[in-house]
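Q: Here's a chain of 447 amino acids. Please give me its 3D structure as tokens.
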Amino acid sequence: MRRATRALSTMAAAALAVGGLAACSSNGDGDTVDAGSPGDISQLDAALEEGGSITYWGWAPWTQDQIDAFEAEYPNVTVDFVNTTSASDHNVKLQNAIQAGNGAPDAVQLEYQSFPQFTLPGALADLSSLGMDALEDQFTPSTWSQVSENGVLRGLPQDSGPMAMFYNARVFEEQGLEVPATWDDYVAAAEVLKASGSFITNDDGGYSGLGLGMIWQAGGRPFSADGENVSIDLQDEGSVRWADMWTELLQSDSLAMIPGGTEEWGKSLGDGTIATVVAGGWFAGLLAGAAPDGAGDWRVAPMPTYDGGEPVSAEQGGSGQAVLESSENKALAAAFLRWLNTSETSVGIVMDSGGFPTTRAQLEDPGFLEVESEYFGGQKVNEVLAAAAESVPAGWQYLPWQAYANSIYADTVGQVFLEGGDINDGLIAWQDENVAYGNDQGFSVNE
């Protein structure tokens, strides 16, 4: 039996349940929202020329630099920026402003997982009607699919987290291990590492981002939503494939009981006690800061696959921006979003601040791909991560109440990790809680 209690990962921000979430498909005036008609993107250029003022809410650390650059390029436009400090606080503030009927911004940053929460009630404007669907080819398919719904564009992608396997090459070499190409290889490596006093990775069972990303990569599609009709199947083939494999690691004591984000975690990454981390591309910068003693030891590789075939990845994290339906200046707000996410200046600011791009121009730029990382022993890390971004299957959906779902993950799936049980049991418990919550909120939830 594993320890009954431990601190769950601090890497994941606590998700707050947003009150007042109810199934509906109308805008603030009660009118049915339809797909709208194709628009002319020249409306955005006209809005920029006319100028004006908009309000923007977000939390990304690079935002003020972006706004300063935008206003320098378009001096007749003023952007009033409200820093909402974190994604979870942000969603609560935004939901409250929308429900109050006043005080909501013109444009807003949203995590990809939060788009359904605000799309269904009609809170997000249709950017297709402003011609912004013409920008699709500039972005990776996986991130574009996260901001569009039933052929209607609800936002633009900003940054992403294509998943890869970060591994300590020194430890692998010392143990005579090859880089795992399959998850069977990964499980076998875990046994060798355990015998040497290291762990294949840490036990981060309270972090929903890991579980969801792993299910996505395994081919699972446990959530689907069509308006008020929601389906949940956390025992679909991909969900079980991941749960069975990770349960084997859990029950063989191959996972370090070290909460992510702690000082002990950073030390264990630096000295090789933890030999791999499967995470989004943003982890490259986090690792260098958390484990400076590991400089030169770490490398990045594609995620192992289940069949040894072509690489398959998933997204872990990331956000985009949307225009609120209540905005009185949608064209100007949309023009600002276009600049934020397609301007070389703006995208460069995101990248310089550690964000991973969603734009093909940057992902295909030799100047980006060929950067050699000193921390990663001179490896061209961006080449691996850019390839991962291209290998993310589209079609993933989040629940319309994903913030709430994430907040109860530690109490269901995470509890099984604490007890060393079968992760499938945790997924079933998580499903039961979500089915009950969704039905209570007025959705029709099918299992």
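Q: Can you summarize the key feature?
A: Confidence is low (pLDDT under 50) at residues 1-20, 22-37.
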